[in-house]
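I have been asked to look over a protein record a colleague put together. The record follows directly below this note.
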Amino acid sequence: MSPPAIVFTDWDGTVTLQDSNDVLTDNLGFGYEKRKVLNDRMLNETLSFREGFDEMLRSIPANGHSFQECVDYLLQHIELDPGFKDFYHWCHEQGIPLYVISSGMSPIIEALLKKLLGQQVMDHVTIISNGVEINGNDWHIVYRDDTPFGHDKAASIKQCLENYDLSKRPYLFYCGDGVSDLSAAKSCDLLFARRGKDLVTFCIKQKIHFTQFDSFKDILSNVQKIVSGEKKLEDCFE
């Protein structure tokens, strides 16, 4: 049976208010100023996301911080978007699958999800992200693929959709905030982009339809209206 909709969402800076990788780089790695330089190069497309992200993350163990230290630090500093819990519960009640499609690392996402929402929620949310290889106090990210993003989110979405009978086409939604969400943005019917973030800039530049959100409360309101037929997809386009 086809669900009425399928929701795919980024994790860092989308489901959470802070980007865990930025928090680690700024506080345990080489710091904000150097990260900002790399971010600007990625935005200007003079450096791939994969290369810039890898350089940021490598600065953390280079400063002597183990992976477990990073997890513990994030558990103390990362907050959940205030509307996500209600959004999750509504999706679960409606039989709408929810996938986290992330360029981050699975163990970090799992630890945060368990702390912020509990084990029961973890059992009903599918996480598709990068891995991590740990060798004593040293560690590094293990990318899912060889693409410039390290994780082709569009390919992951396509793979997820193979699990469903799409004869009655469900609405496909994606929620994101950054550069790594761009490929996924083209794979869905409606993209929710966090207001004021890099993804909005890219969507305008590449003429991709989107709607901005401040919290998952906005996303819930729009998705409910679209699924019920009260609102059309194109009514949300900016």
Q: What stands out?
A: Residues 69 and 112 are 14 Å apart (CA to CA). The first strand starts at residue 5 and ends at 9. The chain is about 45% helix and 20% strand. The beta strands are 5-9, 98-105, 126-135, 138-142, 171-176, 190-194, 211-213.
